[in-house]
Amino acid sequence: MSYYKINNLEEYFKHYKKSIREPRKFWGKVAEENFTWYQTWDKVMEFDMAEADIKWFTNAKVNITKNCIDRHLAKRGNKNAIIFEPNDPKEAAQYITYNELYDRVAKMANVLREQGIKKGDRICIYLPMIPELAVAVLACARIGAIHSVVFAGFSASAIASRIIDCECKMVITSDGAYRGNKTIDLKSIVDEALEKCPTVTTVLVAKRTNTEVKMKEGRDLWLQPLLDEAIPNNVAEIMDAEDPLFILYTSGSTGKPKGMLHTTAGYMVYTAYTFKNIFNYEENDIYWCTADIGWITGHSYILYGPLLNGATTVIFEGVPSYPDFGRFWEVIDKHKVSQFYTAPTAIRSLAKESTEWVDKHDLSSLKVIGSVGEPINEEAWHWYNDHVGKKKCPIVDTWWQTETGGIMISPVPFVTPTKPTYATLPLPGIQPVLMDEKRNEIEGNQVVGSLCIKFPWPSIARTIWGDHQRYKETYFSAFPGKYFTGDGALRDEVGYYRITGRVDDVVIVSGHNLGTAPIEDAINEHPAVAESAIVGFPHDIKGNALYGFIILKEIGEYRDRDNLRKEINEHVASHIGPIAKLDKIQFVSGLPKTRSGKIMRRILRKIAEGDFSNFGDITTLLNPEIVEEIKNERL
Ligand code: ATP
Ligand code: MG
Fold this sequence. Notes:
EC 6.2.1.1, 23% strand, 635 residues, globular, single chain, binds magnesium ion, binds adenosine-5'-triphosphate, ATP-binding, 30 strands
């Protein structure tokens, strides 16, 4: 019997039980039957939760790109691996077969080796959603270089801090990027970032926009001429199961970005397995995930998961609103997409527009539709179900994190009955538990608590790059022996999970999880600012927007408050990115603080939301009088 595919609810429960009772047997069988290995493992898994030390498939040897590409060539060489849909619908789509993908990855891998890149070196990839991005990622994996993809919407200082943290040797970028009707000069952003990054010796530049760029002698090289010279054949590096595959930075709620490190074999097995089941993937499907490869969703479910299954994956360069609000639906129609995977913020923004945009296009190719990134509200769920899925496509509301590598809690379509706003049931191998404040496991149903996972799964991140102590403290210390997700959840009467949001202070703006701490750090650097506190408040389109409470140092030259607001926002845009701009800025004379000096954010959150009804216990406040002032001057 194969465990790779769940066909009905009975099988789901059967596989689930097996995966809990005998996790090693379960994953051993999945790994053995569905991948090619140079050498199999001595042990399926070893772990020590107290030390956050987890290993899967010990001593196995493998290369993930052999599994993503080479092994498909005999049967699927002429099948499309990637369909590239450009930003501008007038530009022709590109169809890249598995044969062609092999050639392109091999050439790129050879270019990297030629430039002196070796197994274990870190490469920062800062590219728009073009085929070169996929090729660069896979080429790194081919030769064992560790990719660190930085979303091409990040600012120079955000890139610099990520490059510095993991000491990248090389940056792969492009002259520019198209985004709707805008052109962004990526190369000049990289140039600015690199002023602070001495470890980078080479920059490879792909051509996309033909923007004029400055090429630094001895450092910068155009990519295409190097590729033209390279041979389309490459011997893959033999990787250990636990060799690093990539580093990916989370939004960083505590200021310094967290470089989550994922390793090879466990990540490969789990992303392939979840892709197959959560999207009900079948051989001739066309799969499309609208995320950016710069996020974990793009790593696991645009590239690795689909390619491991020999699927056709769409890479979309554009945005949902360009040239009009029908763009997503047009692409589904054009490429006859079977699975569509997007984020609640995109759904909400499109649901605001007339349904004519959807109805104009034939969406009958769709089979499964998915959501990821934040809780999907009920209204958006129904709109998605009614207008996009036409009530016949199950919605997979997939809960997971950068740290988890793959989807953890989600319906299996055509197997698990869905329920609006519920991520429903854990995937095989995943053991969620809800914990109370006293660190006890909450038994039974109809309960709420902090969501933890009590047993390792194959694609859990192994560490934070260069800071294992921080990894242990962040994820394994709040509830000893368990992985703490940072999210809260409720479990309903039948055992379905609903994620209620974060336990800490992160605001999800338009689907981007923004830690408030780094934004505050940036604002506090402005010469006029003494201190600041940022909270989220509900916003129709963005889901949440940011509200800043700011204490000024002195008024002096900053008498013009609106100008100052603009300046602060420009400061935020250049330090974090435009996405982190504040919608409201209220200047205050003080912030509510506890006696130990911590800002009491729940009060600010209530004020920002306009809910003055019940501030709860404010007796621990050092300065309770400030609450009145802030409330009265709310914007
Ligand atoms: P950081 O850890 O630095 O704050 P981040 O958490 O913002 O970064 P991600 O790993 O991309 O970065 O986001 C994972 C988080 O997104 C989850 O912990 C959860 O809060 C939220 N999330 C993702 N998918 C869902 C979902 N389907 N339902 C509810 N929340 C979700
Ligand atoms: Mg997180």
